[in-house]
Automatic annotation (TrEMBL):
Protein name per its UniProtKB record: Claudin domain containing 1b
Keyword presence, Membrane: yes
Keywords of this entry: Membrane, Transmembrane, Transmembrane helix
Membrane topology, record value: Multi-pass membrane protein
TM spans (from-to): 138-160, 167-191, 211-234
Subcellular location, principal: membrane
A GO-annotated cellular component: membrane
Length: 250
């Protein structure tokens, strides 16, 4: 028999966990973690086309794709990098052509590629800090989602076995998942800051945080609140059960 207070805590914790999972999943799959606002495109069409070609079809060169994002209103995510280029226009079209978004995904080997202080010269010494920040920002959200799904299985097993003890493990798993979500945001912001130290954006280019990063950041307190509710329900129910058992024995 479960007290109504504990059942309510479990329901609210489950809803918070679901919201956090949805927010983090959307954040991981979108590219609006960091975005650049460039001055109006004054490049000739050939220059924009050249930058677009290097960005999409060129080798994986951090310096080149970063330069393209700086100049072409680019956006950066955990799995994607995008730029905005003028679309195909004719002489009778408006002077300001409509911009089109072009995105390229980071492949799995590229996620584990080493970072260097000067990307144009890969013979330089490896920058271990940026390398592991990049890898952590890729791995930590996956670990966070895996912990949440593992906690779901633990919770289902607890319901089938009609025991409240595994809920303590559910709370601990959500606590670790929340820390991983926060670590993802911290690693990403630190990596972007270090990138700007080695490859400074041109004058007039402004960077800002995107809505994808805010979604990942919101998932952290949601997971922590869910963990607190699960831990409170498990510990309080255990104490109450111990007291009732001792009372019956007496």
């Amino acid at each position: 028999m479960v007290d109504n207070r504990y059942a309510t805590a479990l329901v609210i914790g489950s809803v918070l966990s679901l919201l956090a999972t949805v927010y983090l999943s959307v954040a991981v799959g979108t590219q609006h973690w960091y975005q650049y606002s460039s001055p109006p495109v004054k490049h000739k069409a050939s220059n924009a086309t050249e930058l677009k070609g290097e960005f999409i079809n060129g080798d994986f060169d951090e310096m080149k794709y970063s330069g393209a994002m700086f100049r072409l209103n680019g956006t950066l995510g955990l799995w994607w990098r995008c730029i905005m280029v003028p679309g195909q226009s004719h002489w009778y079209d408006a002077p300001d052509p409509k911009l089109e978004t072009w995105c390229v995904s980071f492949t799995l080997p590229q996620q584990f590629t080493s970072k260097y202080r000067h990307s144009e010269d890969n013979n330089e010494e490896e920058d271990l800090l940026r390398t592991y920040l990049w890898r952590c920002q890729f791995l930590l959200p996956l670990v966070s989602l895996a912990l949440v799904f593992l906690s779901v299985h633990v919770g289902v097993c607890a319901c089938l076995c009609r025991t409240f003890t595994p809920i303590l493990g559910v709370g601990v798993l959500h606590l670790l998942a929340g820390l991983c979500s926060l670590g993802t945001v911290c690693c990403f912001l630190a990596g972007v800051d270090l990138l700007h130290q080695y490859s400074r954006p041109p004058e007039g280019v402004e960077g800002s945080l995107g809505w994808s990063l805010y979604l990942a950041l919101i998932s952290f307190p949601l997971q922590m609140m869910a963990a607190a509710l699960f831990l409170w329900a498990a510990r309080s129910h255990r104490k109450n059960y111990t007291r009732m058992t001792a009372y019956r024995v007496a």
